[in-house]
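fwd from M.: "can u put these together and see what the complex looks like"

so here's what she sent:
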Amino acid sequence: MSTDSPRPSEVQSSVESVFREEHGRLLASLVRRFGDLDLAEEVASEAVEAALVHWPAWGVPARPGAWLLTTARRKAVDRLRRDQAYAARLAILQVEADRADHAPPADSDRGLPDDRLQMFFTCAHPALAAEDRTALTLRCLAGLTTPEVTRAFLVPTATMAQRIVRAKKKIREARIPFRVPGTDKLPKRLPSVLQVIYSVFTEGYAASSGPQLQRLDLAQEAIRLARILRHLMPAEREVAGLLGLMVLIHARHEARTGPNSELVLLDDQDRGRWDHTMIEEGNDLAVPDRRPLLLGQRLHPHPAGNARSLPRRHRRRHHPLRDPQTRAPRRPTRSLPRPDSRPQPQPPHRHPPRRPAPSPRRPHRAPRLSFRRHHNRPNPHRPQDKLTHSAQRNE
Amino acid sequence: MKYMLLIHAGAIDEKGAAAECSVEDWMVYDKEVKEAGIWVSGESLADLVTSTTVRVGPDGRRTVTDGPFAESREVLGGFYVIDVPDLDVALDWAARCPGARGSGSVIVRPIAEFGA
């Protein structure tokens, strides 16, 4: 992504940040146009190389994303002119893709605002292995390079490169389509997309390996992906729920670790360090105002646990999901995708509650002791829990 | 693009047919595949006890053995080759196949394409 000749560093970082932001969109548009992920990736990086050459001299264009797309398209057309056989193959692909678009009942009521949505569904296709889905999504939609994806999974680069190559080969040769599933199949396919995002987040929340408890880059990347997805599918409550869940959990990230990156349990956390803007956002996402909640749509844990940390208007409103008495977060429902091989974000309470029973001002809220006991138990499978938990007993 | 649907029967009844679906199911499915205009070929394989294995060693000698018999739980019972635009469509047809029900399974494999 960088060139050998010295460049003004700000241009390079500008190219990098533009590329990071635009990569998914760029790649998705190219794949839609040319129907080939490898070609799309190659011309996308050629366009970035061109940007590194041109932008220092001519300045960063007003619409850098459009500039990159135009450049990449030209390069793809050049390449196809040079390689006629390849072009012929792609043309067949294109014709068949059009044929496929007409075959199933067209999904006309759901417009395609952005090609990235197709990319999300392709990368998270159930025909791909679960870890490949995550790797591909990070690479194609989050704009991470293979070594960056490698760092995310803490596996050797060669292994990851192989995995990505294998997944791309399967997409190409088994012809996994770049298509958003129709409304009839969407409920079955969306969880797979959400699961990819959630497993990235989970790794960020409680890293399965490495010295740090949290890996904020991954958590932020997952939130960024969820924001893109939410932008693309604003009506999907599952998407809103997942984004809500993640921002509510992430709002506490600063207070979750001490100076030596040890776990700080909820009751000991400095709540001043919670990100209240995020909590607000999460609340609004999780409980859209004036919309009735249906059973089975409860996706998020209670964000704050403490009513006093919430703004007054939230405290006053009585809502089943904003139950300040239920301090343990509700477990996400079945509908939430669960990464199966990764540690789950644990409920933040891992020891018996210290606070007194609910205040008599709210007699109608019976404390849900059995529920809390169940969820407050430390998880014996997490070493950091054991440590912190026993340390607290010694106090 | 052509895909082969390899139909594996899990449980087999005494007649050697897949236990979870009836002959009528198969006839309906077969008709659907052919009417959809995607059928390339397809056969149902005879009972596994009729199978014979042939191997040719490095010296060119032919070894013929009876079998194989069902050591694994799943037995290849038949196949379809269909021509559909992409994997999603192929998976849909596989899911409609009676052989995918119950303990059976259908493996979807793209047919390799050589040349343009």
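replying to her w this: The radius of gyration of chain A is 24 Å.
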